[in-house]
Every structure is written in C-alpha cells, then in structure tokens.
Amino acid sequence: MTPASLLDLGIGAVALALAAFAGAARSSFAAIVGFVALGLLLALAWLRLGAPDVALTEVAIGGGLTGLLLIGAERRLRARAMAEASDPVSTRVRVAAAVLSAGVAAGLAAAVLSLPIPAPTLGPAALRELPRTGLDNPVTAALIAFRAFDTLAEKVVLLLALVGVWSLAPDREWGGRPGQRYPLDADGVLAFLVRLLVPVGVVFGGYILWVSAGAPGGAFQGGAILATMWLAARMAGLTDAPRLCASRVRWALAAGPLVFFAAGLAGPLVAGGFLAWPVGFEKPVIVAIEIPLMLSIAAVLGLLLAGPAQRDGAR
Amino acid sequence: MTGATPLLWMAVVVPMLAAVVALALGGRAGERIHLVLLPAGLAIAVGIAVQAARSEVPLHYHLGGWAPPLGVALRADWASAAMLLVTAAVMCAVGLYARGPLGTPKGVGEARAPYAFWVLLPGVWAGLNAVFLCADLFSGYVALELLTFGAVPLVCLDGRGETLDAALRYLLFALLGSMLYLVGTALLYGTYGTLDIGLLSRHLRGEPALWIAIALMTTGLLAKTALFPLHLWLPPAHAGAPAPASAVLSALVVKAPFFLVVRLWLDVLRGGAGTPAAGLLAALGAAAILFGNVLALRQARLKLMIAYSTIAQLGYLFLIFPLAASPAALTGGVLQAINHALAKAAMFLAAGLLAERLGHDRVAGLGGAGRAHPVPVLAFALAGVALVGLPPSGAFLAKWFLVSAAAQTGQSWLSRVTDVGALLTSAYVFLVLARAFATPVEPLVARTPPARHRDAAALALAVLAALLGLAPLAAPGSASGVSQVDLGKALAYAVSVAALWPVAAGAALAFALSRRTADPPARGVLLALDRSLRQWPVAGISLAAVALSLGAAFLLRDARW
Amino acid sequence: MSTATLFGVYGAVLVGIGLYGMIVQTELLRRIVAFDVLGSGIFLIFGAVARRGAAGGLASDPIPQAMVITGLVVAFAATGVATALLLRLSASAEGVARRPEGPP
Q1: Is C80 within 8 Å of A139 when comparing Cβ atoms?
Q2: What is the mean pLDDT of residues B470-478?
Q3: Least C-beta-crowded within 10 Å: which of B526, B545, C33, C89?
Q4: What span, in angstroms and rounded, lies between the C-alpha atoms of C85 and C77?
C-alpha cells in the first residue's frame, strides 16, 4: 500500500476544515459554498484513491449539481425571508450531540483502522470476467453487467424521486413549467458564452459516455454534463423549461429504463437469464442501452434540478 | 440449478415496469395499469409461495448469470414468500379502495395527486418485494431507498402544511437511517470482500469491524422502522397521509427494515449476536409496546390512535431476538408481522371510510357510527380482534410461539410484557367500539354514499387477519415449523385464563374510559416524554446513543466464534 | 499509515461532523447540507475500502466504486426531494406555525 503523502494529509485537513466551516458558518450561502468546495476537493481525494470514475461523478453530481440545487434553494428561501430562527438548541443538547457524534466517528475510525490486511477484494475476479462483458473499464462493467440490477433499481429510484418532487406542485399549476423564466439578453455576454459552451458541453458529455467502455466515464457523468448544459441554456434565456405534462418529457424520462428493461427481459430468451447479455454481442447491447440511459439520466437530473411545476399549469 | 426460478426477478420487475409505464403514459393510465398489476403481482406471489413450499432449499436466482460475490442474487425462503403474499394481499385491497378517493376525477385529463399516487404505489411494491427477496446487502440499500422515495411523497399528498412538515421529518430521519446502514455495508465489504448474505454468514469471524458495522446498520434500520425511541416521524406521517397510503405505510413499509434486521441477525450473524445486544433490542421493543399502547389510549383522533398502535405492535417484533435460539421465535415474529400488516391496513381503511362519512376523525365523536356504517366498524372490530390476539387470528398463534419460546429460554418477563400490551390494546379497541355504538349527540348525517367495493376491501383484510391463525391447517409447511399439534396447543393456551385476563381487564378499562364524554386530557408523564423524544435534536441524540449502546453490547457479548 | 487508511479516517471524521450538524442544526437547509457532508464521509470510507482492494494491476476495486457512484446519485436525488419539500413547506402558510414538539 502506498504510504500517505503530505499531499494526502493536506487534502484531508482542508477537507475537514471545509466541512467544519460548512457546519459552523453564519450564513447559509457561505456554508453551501464551503460544501461545493469540499466536493471539488474530494474529487482530488478520489484521484489519490485511484478512482477516476468516482472523481468524475463527485465533481459533476456530488459537488456540481448538488451545489446548484442548494444554492437555488437558499436564494428562494432568502427571498421569502424564511431564514426562520427556531429556538436555538441548548448547550446541553449540543454537548450531548457532540460527544455522541464523536463516539460514532471514533467507532468508525477504529473499524477502518482494524480492517484486515491483506484486504479482501473482488478486483481480480472482475478482471477475470471482464472479457465476458466486452468492456475494458471494470467500473462500467460493475455498473452495467455484474451489478446491473442495482443500476436498474437506482434508475427507478430517480424516477420516483422526480415524481415525488412533481407532486409538490400546487394543484392549479400541475403539468406546468418548472422554475422561473429567465430573460433573454440576445446581445449579452451570458447568451454569447452559453451559445459557445453548450455545443462543446454536449459533445463532451457524449464523449464521456462513449469512452466509458474502456476509460473512466459513464452514463451518469455524461448525463450530468448534459443536464448542466440544459440549465445553462435556460439561465441564459435561450430556452424555457417544457411543460411537465408534455408526453415528450415523460417518454424521455422513461425511455432509458424501458430500454434497459427490454434488454434485460430479452436476456432469458437469448442469453440464459434476466439481465444477461448475449455472448459475442455484449458491447453493442451495452452501448444500445447506455445511450438512451444517458439521455434519461440527463432528463431526470435536469428536471430534479428544475423542481416542481410553477407556472403555465393546465388549468 | 435446483431452486432457481425467474419468478423472483419478476416479483420486482413487474411493479417497477408498471410504475415507469404509468409515469410515461400519464392521465388515467396509472389506475388502469394498476388493475392489471394487481392480479399479476398476486399470481407471482402465490407462485413463489407454492414453489418455496415444494422446494427443500430456498429459491434463488443469479441476476445476469453472475454468481455472488461478483454478482447479485435474489433469494426466497418461507419468510420471504410469506411477506410477499401479505404484501400482495394488502396492495390488492388498497388498490381497489384507493380508486375512490384517489381516482382521477371525471372530466379531468390528469390530476396531481392521482398521477403521483398511481406511479408511487407500484414503486413501493417493487421496493418491498426487493427487500424481501434480496440476498445482497447493497441491493437491500437500494431497495430501502425505493421505499423511502416512494413512501415520503405519499405522506404529503394532500398538500397541507402539517403533512409537508411530517413528510420532511420522515425523509430526513429515514435518510439518516439509510446512511448508517450504508456505512455498515462499507465496513462489511472491507472486512469480507462480499455483501452476499450467504457468503457473509460462512466467512464471519468475530472482529470489531463486524460488530461496529452491524451496530450501525441495525440502528439505521431501527430508525426506518420507527422503533422506540426513534419513532418521532411515524405518528404525524401515518396519521396525515391519505387512508390508503397510511394503510400501506403502517402495514408494509415499516416491516421491510425489520425484515432486514432479521436477515442480519439471524442469517448473517446466525443468531450469534449475544445476550446483551439481543436484550437491548427486546428492551426497546418492550418499551415500545408499553409506550405506544398507553399513548394510543390517550389520543383524541382515530388515525393518531392507530398510528401509535403501530408503534406498539412493532415492539412485539423485536421481542424475538433474545429467543433466536428457538426456531419458533422466527415463526412467531413473521406471523406477528403478517397479522399486524393485515389488521393495521384494515383499520386504516376502515378509519378512512368513517372519516369520509362522518366528516371528522375524533374518537369521542364516533357515536352512532356502529348503526349508520356497520361494515367499517365491523372491519375495525375484526382487526382489533387480530391485534389483541384472540383466536383464530394470527396473533394468537404468534403469541403462543413467543410465550412458549420465552418459557423454554427462561425469559418469562417477555410474557408479562405481552400481557400488559394485550390489556392496553384491548382497551383502546373496545373504547373505539364503545364510542361507535354509543348514541350520538346529534343524529347522524351520512356525507358520502357508501361505495360497496371499498367497504369490502377493508372487511376482506380484516377477515383475513382474524382468520390467519387457521392458515397452518391449509398449508402445513414444515419449513415454517407450524404443525397442527401446535395449533391445538396454541388454542388451549389462548382460551386459558392466563391469556384471557388481559383482554377482560382491557375491556373493563375501556368501559370506564368511555364514561367520559370529553376528549382525553393532553397532559401526563408519558405524553410529555413523547413530546420531548419527538423533538428532532433529542431524537438525533437517541439515534446516536442507540448506535453506541448496540456497539458496546456487541463487543461485550460472550464470544460464540 | 497508507493513503487509503488515512482517507478512511478522514471519512469517519466527516461522518461525525455531518451527524453533529444534522442533529443540532435548526435551519432545515443547513441540516440538508450536513446530510450531504455525512454522505461524503461515508463515500470516502467506501473509497478507502476500494483502494485497499487494489490488485491485479487495478488501482482500486471496481465493485465499491460502483456502489459509490450509485450512492452519489441517490444522495443527489435525496437532496432534490428534501429541498423541494423545504421550499414547498416554506411557501405554505401553516408551515411557519410552531408545533408542540418543535419544528422538524
């Protein structure tokens, strides 16, 4: 095992400081910025841990999209003057919480320090079975082949979360457009920049998916980039959010999981089991699944960011 | 592979497909798809049960053809099959009932609450089946998240501030529980290189990382199942949700985390958790029984009373852990879970019908309901019989298993606790019935024309619960360990004085309480304790305290390894 | 101490910080931020486990990496639902009123 370097100590120390800042900062906005910075720093940690796929996901979704969500929420809450001061928590409770949380952290740290050497691992097993999947990136293989069921279930989790968010719309706005309408300044800097950036971003997102068969990347990371490009286009006023009752929205969301299901259901007929991929055709099948999957992921991430319907409802 | 069957993945995939297609098609499609889903889901559950009964080994399926530890498997033993069946039964009743209050109104293309309900409900069904069939602990995590994201929006479907508050509280506490569960899986993988339940149970050695992991995972699951003192979110959530959602939440959603605790303690640890830890769980369960039942008696609103009753009934489930040495204990636990699921769902559906027709939810104002709306009241009464544990309900059989296992292992304090629980339960059941048959202050005005099939749904569940104890006669499954001899012995016990005195005492208490015409007072030690425990910071501290106590209890146990 | 174990311990501390924040924060949005910090800590622990599983030419065990990616996406969805609930609650007039057991 590689010994920890000064770099690792530094990354960790700054990470802890940012986390403490995010907890203790006076203003919510500062806390959120601290959290986003933490996310970006943790991406470095993931690289040090030898997990570039995860680093990509952390940066795009953990730090990036989550940060956007929180900043948007903080602004809307501030606008409603809802920084409500509930009764501050008493010192006794703070001390008790601190002691117990420290206890849990200590227990976790003790467990981590007592993990066995040599560490058990499924890496060699994954490498052995990799040729059967037709892929070269073992993380992609884990997501789409070995543990495809978890990925499929997770897609359904995302859709349920989105419908849950949609259900929070006021009845009269049901089916309308989420988020606000951003004004378009056609000659402004923002519109110009976004017009340059979006095509590059879309290509980049597609590339990240395409290359994930053999290099770090994947449908989730690519989808997150596409979702962000859509947000950028909306914020520049170049496009407006669609009405949520539109069938193209609904089918865009469902297409990915449905293709995944269809491929999985074809498994028992051609490959011997549910979610088994046909021998010799794994790569085309996986690519055929991942493209609609990425589009659906982009749609669901982007719509989760946009929130429930707020205007132009059906009634 | 003997015992491999595709029905296992179908049980999870079919409801998932229903949810996704309902989302895509929109409009009335959700309700219509559900009409197809109900018989399909029921058929799959029955199919799995039949195959499980015939097979000597538990049913299994390797998804994608990848065997664990690299791949993910599904597994069904008799306990899974039983839970799948009761899930299908409750879903059928709820699916038929909910077409009334949550059907898309005429003349409207699509409405918010119905659309969301008919997408989320199959999602919850998929999550439940996934939990009951999972053989991999990380799949269990994803299944739990299916349940959380499906259940939380159902709580605030009516859009009132109260229910939004309850939903947010439920979401945050449930997420906290998921996080604790997740970190435990990280530690287990780091120690054993697999999260497959079967493989873990074979490779266990008693190291500290194992105990810390199990302590954290168990605590997370206790938070999600709302075991005392981690119950803060349950009363407002289950009482505030629409009646069909409350039925699913109380009957099924809170059972899934319990099922995972059973898998962890009885399958992974193979019963080797040690006395202090098992005793801690049982102590919390006992506290839940006493606390929940007393508070149920003090509630002025019917749905809150039923919600607190759920908190109490969940306590019974955790009494089985000190008895894990005896196989009857698990049978009793699963029977109790099924019995409660059917009875509680029936109760919430009946309460929903009464609330619609009387226009209010107050226990003291139920006068005349017995005569004006006999079917819901009958459903409530039968469900009450099942909760109290009178024969031939499932609870009487479950209680006998528990009591005999307790006597065998010298833990007779458990029987005292169940006696007091039965007393209090019969008290509030009889109280509600007494109120329902009292003469009303003003004559009763029926507000909604009766919808026969919805009454029938509630009644059917209640009848199932009340007759569940006869199930072993129909299916003498040796795997579950229930034989006809047991049935005879259980019956003899159930009609003895030892079993009946709590019911009689409870009825007397109910009679005394029903003399009061006002709502019960809102003061009292336990009410104050409840209010304090249900403040967020206190509940958070309780959570951390439970985790640390469990960890300490594990580390101090007598080593079995 | 190896890189992996160091980051694992850092992860444990982040879990403690996040847990403390979730318990004592009165502002709901800050509680959600604390939840995300808690999640980051847990994922770091997974990362430590993955790094320790480096073998056969791989820098890190792919199975825990896949679990972390799944977890990150679920955590984002959770944050999304929680913030949407919070915004709706703040828009609803009754949400401001105090309840006997205190705000959520």
Answers
A1: no
A2: 63
A3: B526
A4: 12
Query: Considering the domain boundaries, does residue A267 fall inside one?
Result: yes
The H or E element that residue B547 is part of is helix B536-555
Closest CA to B209 of C59, C19, C8, A1: C8
| pTM for the model | 0.95
Q: Within a domain: residue A15?
A: no
Contacting residues for B317 by C-beta, under 8 A, at least 6 apart: B255, B258, B285, B333, B336, B337
The one-letter amino acid code at B81 reads: A
- Torsions phi, psi of B152, nearest 5? -60, -50
CATH code for position C58: 1.10.287.3510
Coil, strand, or helix at residue A178?
strand
Each residue of C45-79: pLDDT tens digit? Answer: 999 999 999 988 899 999 999 999 999 999 999 99
The domain total for chain C is: 1
- The whole-number pLDDT of residue A272 equals 74
Among C42, C44, C58, the strongest candidate for a mutation testing the B interface, having the largest count of B CBs within 10 A, is C42
List the single best residue of A167, A250, A258, A277 to mutate versus B (max B Cβ within 10 A): A167
Domain of residue C23, residue span: 3-96
- Dist CA B257 CA B253 (whole Å): 8
Contact between B233 and B174 under an 8 Å Cβ cutoff? The reply is yes
Considering only alpha carbons, which residue of chain C is nearest residue A103?
C16
* pLDDT higher than 60, residue B479: no
Query: Is C89 inside any structural domain?
Result: yes
Nearest to A246 by CA among B119, B117, B112, B26: B26
The pLDDT tens digits for A255-302 are 999 999 999 988 887 777 888 888 778 788 888 889 999 999 999 999
Q: Residue A34 domain-assigned?
A: no
Helix (H) or strand (E) holding B403: helix B394-408
> Residue B477's pLDDT is what?
53
Residue A130, in any domain of the structure? yes
Q: Which two tokens stand for residue B221?
A: 């699951």
Instruction: Give the mean pLDDT of B132-138.
Output: 96
> Quick one: tokens of C41?
């800590």
Answer whether the bond into residue B392 is a cis peptide, omega within 30°.
Answer: yes
Contacts of A66 by beta carbon, 8 Å cutoff, 6+ apart? A35, A36, A39, C36, C75, C76, C79
pLDDT band at B185 (very low <50, low <70, confident <90, very high): very high
Task: Inform me whether the pLDDT recorded for B40 exceeds 60.
Answer: yes
Residues spanned by the domain of A231: 125-315
- In A, residues 225-264, which contact B (CB 8 Å cutoff)? 245, 247, 250-251, 253-254, 257-258, 261, 264
End-to-end CA separation in angstroms for chain C: 41
Q: How far apart are CA A238 and CA A87, in angstroms?
A: 44
